[in-house]
Amino acid sequence: MTATEPQADEVTDGVPVTIDGVEIMAKKGELLIAAAERHGVYIPRFCYHPRMKPVGMCRMCLVEVDTGRGPGLQPSCMLPVSDGMVVQTESDVAKKAQDGVLEFLLINHPLDCPVCDKGGECPLQDQTVAYGPGESRFVEEKRHFEKPIPISDIVYLDRERCILCDRCTRFAGDVAGDPLIHFQARGNETEVNTFPDEPFSSYFSGNTVQICPVGALTAKPYRFKARPWDLTEIASTATMDSVGSRITVQSSRNEVLRYLGVDSDPVNWGWLSDKERFSFEAWNADARLTGPLVRGDKLGNPTDSGDQLVGASWALALGKAGDALRDVDPEKVIVLGGSRMTTESQYAWAKLAKAVIGTDNVDAQLGDGPAAEVLLSLPRATIDQACAPGGTVLVVGADPKETHGALFLRLRHAAMHDGATILELNPRSSGLSQYAAQSLHALPGELGDVVGALAAGGAAGGCDADAIAAMAEALGAADAVTVVLGSGSLGEDPTVMAQAALRLAEQYPNATFLPALHRANVMGAIDAGLAPGMLPGRRRLAGSTAPDTWGSLPASAGLDAEAMLRKADAGDVEVAILLGCDPLADFPDAALAERAFNKVNHLISVDTHLNLTSTGADIVFPAAASATEVDGTFTNMEGRLSPIARKVTPPGTARPDWMIAAELAAQLADDLGFIDLDELWADFAAASPLHADLSMADIAEGGTEGVLLAGSSISRPPAPNVEMADSSDMRLIVTRKMYDAGTLLTNSPSLVELAAGASASINPAQFASLGFTDGDDVTVRSEVGSITLPVVADAGVPAGAVAIEFNQPNASAASLLDSARTVTTVSLERVS
Amino acid sequence: MSRLTEANVKIAHEIIARYPRPKSALIPLLHLAQEQDGWVSDEAMAHLAELVGVTPAEVRGTCTFYEMFKLHPVGTYMVNVCTNIACQLLGGEELLHHAEKTLGIRPGGTTSDGMFTLEDVECIAACTEAPCMQVNYRYGVRLSTDDFDEIIDDLRAGRTPDKLITANPGDQIPSHGTLGLTRQHLDPDKAAGIVPPEQVTENPVWLTTTKGDS
Known about the structure:
By secondary structure, chain A is an alpha/beta fold. Helix content of chain A is 25%, strand content 19%. In chain A, strands 15-14-27-26-25-16-17 form a seven-stranded mixed β-sheet. A six-stranded mixed beta barrel of chain A has the order 31-35-32-34-33-36. The longest helix of chain A has 15 residues, at 343-357. Chain B is built from seven helices and four strands. Chain B has helices at 6-16, 26-37, 42-52, 56-65, 85-89, 92-103, 145-156, and strands at 77-82, 116-121, 133-135, 138-140. The longest helix of chain B is centred in the N-terminal third of the chain and has 12 residues, at 26-37. Classes of the chains: A alpha/beta, B alpha+beta. Chains A and B meet through strand 8 of A and helix 3 and helix 4 of B.
């Protein structure tokens, strides 16, 4: 490479630097180590990490630098390039320095590589071979610590192996904002450790294991499971939330053993939440469904009205499902869920429901987010736009720290290091509150009023006029506002969020929206047509003609999840199909869901594990996990397509979801028109203008960035009215936590214990006036149900509201929720 | 031991107010905790973390960096005998051995009555006065073994040893943890302007720039 041949990533207005005799053009302000790497010169390092501030801890990257005053050794990770800098990375002096640093680092490092999990992929091991001394001169006793100590429920620390590079502690403090591990003591005594009895319980602790350059930090799920040379890997996408973090899936002997974060510049920067990283355990769980189940008797024989689920052949189960669906009034079929599946499978199920069965009663959301037509009418933002340096982000009804971990890390970085302003309009304080310039907590049901007051002024929704005016001013002063639009509180009707979002779009015409909804591939489901009233490719059903390959369309627009359950409750549903969802636990009105499924004649579930709802199903189809067992595509919150790759074979006879849809179509004497993924994609591309010019190969070739769909918006519906009953009762706020009693988490042994349990949080003033004391248990009672749980005072909850975490092991707030009301109101009573 | 007392919390807030960022007050606060209990307990560190808005792990990181902060209970009097080069040449090691015999403890140990903790320290910056030692950071200089015995006897008897240098003759030697006998109180109105570093717009007066020279 010479300077006269411009490279793809070459900069022309940069800083000329000579590295090992070759002149390169570095970017202004770039660190020498990064500039060298970009031009193919790898300088060894331990502490330097491209996504964190350099600290110059390890001294491994010493190189000989001459800036006109003669050559000298300098750490290249701490040195920004300067004009005319001459660098020798492999001179005798540099080599001797690196050799010396390695010998120094190895003084106390145990030689337990044969039993160390890092052995074989260890930067210290590799660089000792490449740059280090051939043998040790050290004859003294090495320092000793207790061998691995758990520093959290997931992470183990072996202090003997630690080389004090500061990567994990920098990550915990600077990136995650959880400085629960820190250097302790000094000099030869220095160690990384937690405070006694205060574990490193960060949602992001797994990242420290991945970036540890030695075997000091190991994660419980992978300890002693495999050697790196036994692993094979494939590039894929994390499927626990809608960020679409890029990952590498590694397996050995047909068992997935770990996920590693991949640095995707527009998405996750290499970071993963622990939920994304460790939930693969659920795919290996013994509880995985390995074959179809049908109703049967105690002897395991299938019968039509057996009181338990028994194993059956695919032919029998498919036949029963076909019987149930054949000749049924399409209006009396409902399909719930599907956000767990690949976008291809979502398309297949959308086609099965809409073109073959003929029902539009299809909803991948479970009554916990704005409707598809609202989301698709909003101009879409990317994560990069939301996290733009110096930008302004308005977070509405979202708590990314709990629901979208990697997005939280990006937003936190933007606020802490890039001068972005975070404004928060959340029902209660969130994980972002401490980084937000301003947080307003609208009372449940009155979010739209607060949004209205941003334009009209005045007090609204329990927020005072000055605070609203301050936020309006900050929003008005911003060039471009990005709205991170969450699912809001589960205690509110989704129309509250819809109204707020549509009003924001009206009031701030330049605003763009990043939907941060619960459920993983929910935006893929909407794009694939797995939403009521929608067709593939972000088109409305109403006024559209059937795609060429579809034949027919449902007669009328269908119902959303809540309306479907009401229809079932009215005895008007024959067949309900659950696509990897658990409405009894997860729908924000448990009583309605229970009544509804008691009245459905045929309940068919397609899932990876049995759950509360599917335990009562008539037919259960085992699905291959849309994370590690199928090929396909993930559509993230931005509309970015990235591959999901098959790494292992599904257990038993479990099949990909799309294949089950195709089999069911065959049962109905129809044909979805595809028997493999290529044909499926061709069919999809023909039906969806959005995907027409793409192939799965294009998506794979998109590399770590994937392919961002240029979003076409549909016309904006009018903002709905929100009816609020006048009541002086406490209003209920229900939010999600990262760890809950969801099916996948309860099947992940490392994560199942992490659900902290629900409590009823109320404003400290009310806590005092109601006469509660710390440690009290209260019974929270709504008109439809009651739960008992601890009560705590929390200044982040507005007066007049009670905040409870959803779907926790000790209490399910779903049993309090009444989806018929805009806002559920409750009373509190101390348990004596 | 315990969290800060109410009176000390008041002092802590006064100290915190002297700094642009609360966590900058950590070291004086650790001294305050050590003054209260004679050592710095985990509970005290957790309390300081609350007061300055950092995690207890960060407080512990700062605290453990400094040897003068004791993480375990120590004697009322911390006896530091210097054995660094100047003192060693003039009998520092003999003094330490004598101290060990007199007190019946090894360096790092505490007498069973909880009066004395003995430490073998590196240079304490009194090389011209070797051999030297400190008792709760009050110097004793050019010490003979008899001088040492006299100091110990005086302390056991509750007298201020003549052989220790105090700010004013006869000042008592406070128990371990107390640095000064008087606490300074700074009237907030008279404090120098506290400007967070990120809000500083001008160079300090003593720093002249050469901007525009080129």
